[in-house]
Amino acid sequence: MKRFEYEDACIKCSLCVTACPVYRVDQQFPGPKALGPDWYRHYQAGEAKPMEHVSDCTFCQLCESACPVDVPIAHLIAVHKELASQSPRLAVRDYLLTHPQWLAMVPSLVKLPKQLGVPLGISSSTQWPAPSPLQRSRRHRTHQRQGSATRRIGIFVDCFTRGFDSETLLAASAVLEELGYTAVPLPSASHCCGAAAYASGLLGEAERTARSTHRAVRRMTSGLEAVVTLNATCDDTLRVEWPRYFGLTIPVPILPFVDFVLDRANPGFFERIHGLPGQELIYTHATCRSKVARGEGSLFALMERVSERPPQILEISCCGAAGSYAFKTEHTKVARALGHRAKEVMGEPGIILTDSGTCAIHLQELTGCQTIHPARWLHGQLKRQEVLR
Amino acid sequence: MSSKTAIVVGRGPAGMLSTSYLLQRGYQVTVLAESDGSLGMWPGDFSFGRTTDAFQAFPIELSSAEWSQAFGELVALYRSFGVTLVLPQAQDIPHTVTAIGNMRPTFATPNWQYASSEPESLVFVGIDGLADSIVGAQAATYRRRSGCEAYEVSLSRPPGWDSSWGTIRFAAYLDGDAGASWLAATLREALRGVPSGIPVVLPQVIGLEHTEKLLTQLSEVGKRSVSEFPLLSPSIGGVRVRDRWERLLRQQGVRFVSGRVREVQPVPRALLTDGRSFEADCLLLASGGVLGGGMQVTVDGAIVDELVNREVGRMDHLDALDAHGHREIDCLGGGRVLAVGRAMGGWNPNRDHNGGAMLLATVRTALGMCEEVDR
């Protein structure tokens, strides 16, 4: 299969450079045009010398999304990363970090002292998530009702949600039930969509991981109306990258949770939540990959309909978390420089909503404000409403 | 919801202008775009052509009162997202200077960019290590074209510079305290010996966020006007306009949807290649594309992909679009699907330097048609 289309179409307009968050804060970063299309031309001419700093790319894909002539810039950079040499020590770390499905099986590993990770090149200053409070064996069955006659919606349980954020899964399931659907968490065992490996340039590993997850997801999709995702990066990976780069398709539509709620909920649902008094100020953060995959404004639109106080947009580009990026020692500085912008643009404290677990812990640490998935906020409001009634 | 809805296809200057004006008229707007628009490739000034002569041939002709109202609205809009646009005082067309020293016509110009109605002596500042900063050739050309004196000074590379520094990197650096002090100090040193009072033009990299503050400080300290001349793509002036404008639109509740439009139906409905579909009361096609490489509607109503010169459809085959007449201009009939900006054929701003007039005239006409259809 030909991997790319339009890989040589670059017209050197440099719009990708204007969209790159890292280029603005890291004075050594050569930028997407140099690392992607420019480098790829040399590579194809047989002069394949990897450039320094190529691994400093966060793989947010904003460059690719800006490109007017469809150059797969970020994916060319991933090929570039694959060829960049990494010390054996960092290679071990990257191999571990690009298999978050393993960590999701033993989330309590994050309770080990951070200093243990330092020799491997794992940042000691980046905040780690806390393992989910619920028992692993129980948490995915809570809302599964077999043989139910209602409309069934799959929820893709990504590594982060599985290992560290089962509250979001429960909340999303509860909200979907409120809307008249039965939520089916899938796959049943811990799997990764492959995004972490792709972002680090481990393309073969990304494809193997995706294929295994695809098998596990596919067999559970019969009878489902759609599969809802809780994380923007997994969403983009499943819906766009799987078919484009690995030829893997899912027979039902894949939709982000927020878009699904915005589209399917009736006005009564919004009004019930909207009427609740005394809500805190809400900031919405559209993650890079959600902008790339679907665009921005749907989370804000949802919050405009349900929040008593007008929501505000967290006016930052990439927060710097970028999956496992912020956990790597050599990226800590850039990740924090990007995330600090959030604190600067917030006029008053509030609660930040975003559909990525790693962005959430990063933003929460750097702003000091609670940062959660929109499903949890909605669920919280529904529960409050029940109490008040 | 009772408010009217609109879809704008494309997020370049025509798309953004349409979006803002639709919001002002009470529409709820969704922008569909598959890539960034051309704002980052354009310095952000609105040109009018080479003359204000009423007989200048535009595909859409407005009266001088209408032009003056259109530019007045534009200035107010720019002010709302924090950019000051300066209109010429007199009847003549002002010019700006280019990176190679030519005098290019402009009209409504952001206050950071050099514009003047009369040729005058200038101090050209080059920055070593900045591509497209070729001060020697620039000053020589300007001398020849303007007949005025052109002084040239060069600033050395900033500390920490390496070959990866493009315009965005320079601008981000100058936005910070270290960069701002470096610029103030080296410029003061470089201007020593240059006769006082002569205006200074710098390459357009003086910050992204603090530009106005930086230029004001430099002007006050040096006791002479300091402004920028535009560079080639990516154009920092356009990036400033784009970033501030998009921020305002987001806060006004505009949804920016990423995706490629596969088909436009007369409902109006836009179908995306990923299967999503959007309906609204009116649809504005602002997908002229970077360098004119997007969709264009030709005078006979054909929709052409300009990049590969392939006909992708015909407006008059989408029935109901022609029901309201207006085929005298290629604005896709007076229906609810209208072309604006470069998507509307018949204009050639590269040749005529009238891109600003094109944007204002096409967007204004399209909005007029939307309102007419609604009545």
Please explain how this structure is put together.
The complex is a heterodimer of chains A (389) and B (375). Chain A is of the alpha/beta class. Chain A has 20 helices and nine strands. The longest helix of chain A is centred in the middle third of the chain and has 16 residues, at 203-218. Chain A is globular and about 70 Å long. The termini of chain A are far apart. A five-stranded parallel β-sheet of chain B has the order 11-2-1-15-19, with helices on one face. Chain B has 375 residues and is an alpha/beta fold. Strand 6 of chain A pairs antiparallel with strand 11 (255-258) of chain B, so a sheet runs across the interface.
Give the topology.
The complex is a heterodimer of chains A (389) and B (375).
Chain A: H1 15-19, H2 21-25, H3 32-44, H4 62-66, H5 73-83, H6 88-97, H7 100-105, H8 136-139, E1 151-156, H9 159-164, H10 166-178, E2 181-186, H11 195-199, H12 203-218, E3 224-229, H13 232-246, E4 254-256, H14 257-264, H15 267-274, E5 282-285, H16 288-293, E6 295-296, H17 298-306, E7 312-313, H18 332-345, E8 351-354, H19 357-367, E9 371-372, H20 374-388
Parallel strand pairs in A: 1-2, 1-3, 3-4, 5-7, 5-8, 8-9
Helix pairs in contact in A: 3-5, 10-20, 14-17, 18-19
Chain B: E1 5-9, H1 13-24, E2 28-33, H2 64-80, E3 85-86, E4 95-97, E5 103-105, E6 109-110, E7 122-127, H3 135-146, E8 150-155, H4 167-175, H5 177-190, E9 200-203, H6 211-222, E10 226-229, H7 236-251, E11 255-258, E12 261-265, E13 269-272, E14 277-279, E15 282-285, E16 295-297, E17 302-305, E18 310-314, E19 337-339, H8 349-352, H9 355-374
Parallel strand pairs in B: 1-2, 1-15, 2-11, 7-8, 7-9, 9-10, 15-19
Antiparallel strand pairs in B: 3-6, 4-5, 12-13, 13-14, 16-17, 17-18
